[in-house]
Design brief:
This protein has 182 residues and is mostly helical. It contains eleven helices and no strands.
């Protein structure tokens, strides 16, 4: 990890690059990462917006813009980036915690069905079991919150089936079943 002064020096050095280099995606990605390292999230987001407007087809920049939109609480823009990435089949390898933040935002804004739909679409792209557990747990909580205990239980059972050697999903399922007995 760089110190703040090193980021400033890197930024000064980077800004001396020729115009052609400054217009490249690699330059831009490095520039943004330096701004983020300096904790200039808003400045980084503004720069992303400008670059994305000039290069709307860049999936990698769109992925970074999605992450940054969530980190700066720009959830409406994050939804737009999410939908674009979903259409381009590029949701893989993104931080699942970011997805969960977006889904919670959508849910809290009165659209639990949309949140559930997006969560299920992300789940279909995941390979990592820990990520699947996180999204399935989110779905189970969403179902339980909106009075569909059967679907919540089904999500928890899927976690158990996919992770039969891990005792935690079993304990979560048992706890859920006990707390929701009628």
């Amino acid at each position: 990890m760089f110190r703040r002064q090193e980021y400033k020096e890197a930024l000064i050095f980077l800004q001396k690059a020729d115009k052609e280099t400054q217009e490249s995606e690699a330059y831009f990605t490095l520039f943004i990462n330096i701004l983020l390292g300096m904790e200039n999230k808003n400045e980084a987001y503004i720069a992303y917006s400008k670059y994305l407007a000039a290069h709307p087809e860049s999936v990698e920049i769109r992925r970074l813009a999605y992450e940054l939109a969530i980190k700066t609480d720009r959830f409406k823009e994050a939804i737009e980036h999410f939908v674009y990435l979903k259409e381009k089949n590029s949701l893989d390898n993104l931080n699942v915690l970011l997805h969960e933040q977006l889904f919670n935002f959508i849910k809290e804004n009165g659209q639990p069905e949309r949140s559930k739909k997006y969560a299920e679409e992300v789940l279909a792209t995941l390979n990592n079991n820990d990520d699947k557990i996180l999204i399935r747990t989110f779905l189970a909580n969403l179902h339980a919150t909106y009075d569909n205990l059967y679907k919540a239980e089904q999500e928890l059972r899927k976690i158990v089936l996919e992770n039969f050697d891990n005792p935690v999903p079993y304990l979560n399922l048992i706890s859920f079943l006990i707390s929701n007995r009628e």
